[in-house]
Each structure stands twice: as structure tokens, then as C-alpha cells.
Amino acid sequence: MNNIVFGQYYPSNSPVHKLDPRVKLLIVLFYVVTVFFVVDYAMYGALFLFIVAVALISKIPLRVLFRTVRAVVILVLITSAINLFFTKGEQLLFSWKFISIYKEGVERAIKLALRLILLMLFPSILTLTTTPMELTDAIESLLAPLKVIKVPVHAIALIMSIALRMIPILMEETNKIILAQKARGADFDTGGVLKKAKAMIPVLVPLFVGAFRRADELALAMDARCYSSVAKRTKYKVMKLTVADLVAALFCLSVFALVFLNKYLWHFDEMILSLFH
């Protein structure tokens, strides 16, 4: 549970922390779209260096950021294995009984693993450098045009904010329950998959009970304060775009533009290989 970074805030006084949350959110959305247009290893490496540079500017320790990869390593391995064994191609590398591994399958598995890792790293920087309240205000501001068609924008933003706030709380609660169960003699580390799954039942039951109790307490607290999601509200902190926001947006968009240029115009892998011939 300690490996889960998404949803946690890392306080610092870096330039990235001071950026407008709306700009950061839009940059992350463009980044997610851009990753799906990466076609060669040179661009994967360029995006990875871009993420490391942003993390260093944000003053976020790389060990904290890379814990995101540890949290999804099982998902990466499963999806890579599926593509490795079920992708057919022209160049056969290995064959044994019903198992056949092709060169195309190996390349697809590697690229998919790199894509999943990149998709987890950069959005984690968003939550590490932006408080849940700032994210809520940014989402509400960006979705404001939908109010014309009667979409409950404020309620949607509030739900997302509460969900992000609950992630670290549930993580802490889970750790406490696991420690309490271990003190009572529970074993979570030995045995097969089924035994470990059964051992998690005494953890999941009190975790869900505690989550529902917290939800009821939060609802009662909001009701006691006469909270209404349809009331017109003013902001304590008014978001304003600055020159730094525009510079950061232009720089990130230029990096993302390189990916599209590489896909449709340039081919960095071929250019690099040509230098060695």
C-alpha cells in the first residue's frame, strides 16, 4: 500500500507546485493522448527524460515517483505476457508445443510495458504537486461551460476531490488493520495465492466498514453545515494565469509536438541507426 503514490500530495516550494492547476491538468491530458502516438524507442526515452526533468524541477525525489511503477508492476507483466504470447508475426523466435513467440510480439510487449509505465509516472506528478482542493477547482473551472446544459459540474468536482482525499486515508487505515491482524497472529506472507487471498478477508471487511462509516460521518458533517452543491459559491483563492503558466504550457506542448512530428514526418530510430551504418 505504501507503493501507491497517485492521490498523495508532496509539499514543496517548486515552480511546478506554483503553476495554475488548470494548466497542469490540461498538460497531463495532452500527455496521455501523446503517449499513444509514440512509435519508437527514441521517443520513449525522450519522454522518460522529460518526466525525470519535471520531477527534478518539482523537487520530488525520484524514489517517491518511481514507487508508482512498483505499484503497477503486476499489471505491466500480465499485459506484456498476453501480448508476447498471443501476437502473431512473420519472424518466429521461439516455438515449443503450443507456445510461439514472434519478434513482433516481443516488440509489442516491450512497447506496451513502456507505455503503461509512462502513463503512470507523469499523472503522478500532477497529484504530487497539486492539492486535492486545487484539482477540484481546476476541474470545476474547466468543466464550467457544461453548466449551460445543466451538468452538475460542482458536484462532479466535489466527488473527485473526496475520492482523491480518501486514497491516502484508506491506505493508512489498511496498514493499521494489517498491523493489528499480525499482532493477533495473522499470516499474510506465506502460503499460496488462495491462502493469501483468504488472509486478506479480515482486512477487507473492517476496511469497507470503516470506509462506509467515514462516508456517513462526512455526509452528516456537510449536512450540519448546510452544504448545498447547487448554491452559487465564491472562491477563497481565485486562479489566474501567469507568464510562467504560459511558458510551461508552450514548453510541454513543444515536447508533445515532437512525438507527432516523429510519427508522421521524422523517424528518430531510423536516423539513429543510419549513423552506425
Radius of gyration: 23 Å
Count of β-strands:
2
Class inferred from helices and paired strands: mainly alpha
Overall pLDDT level? 82
Write down the secondary-structure element order: HHHHHEEHHHHHHH
What's the multimeric state?
Answer: single chain
Tally the helices.
12
- Low-confidence runs (pLDDT<50, min 5 residues)? none
Can you give a write-up of this model?
With 277 residues, the chain is mainly alpha-helical. The protein has a domain at 1-130 and 243-277. It is 68% helix and 3% strand. The protein has 12 helices and 2 strands; from the N terminus they run αααααββααααααα. Strand 1 (92-96) and strand 2 (99-102) form a beta hairpin. Helix 3 packs parallel to helix 6 (103-129), helix 5 (73-86) packs antiparallel against helix 6 (103-129) and helix 8 (153-183) crosses helix 10. The protein starts with 14 loop residues before the first helix and ends with a helix. The mean pLDDT is 82.
Topology:
Layout: H1 15-18, H2 21-35, H3 41-57, H4 62-71, H5 73-86, E1 92-96, E2 99-102, H6 103-129, H7 132-142, H8 153-183, H9 193-199, H10 201-224, H11 243-264, H12 268-274
Antiparallel strand pairs: 1-2
Give a short synopsis of this structure.
The chain is built from twelve helices and two strands; from the N terminus they run H-H-H-H-H-E-E-H-H-H-H-H-H-H. The chain is mostly helical and 277 residues long.
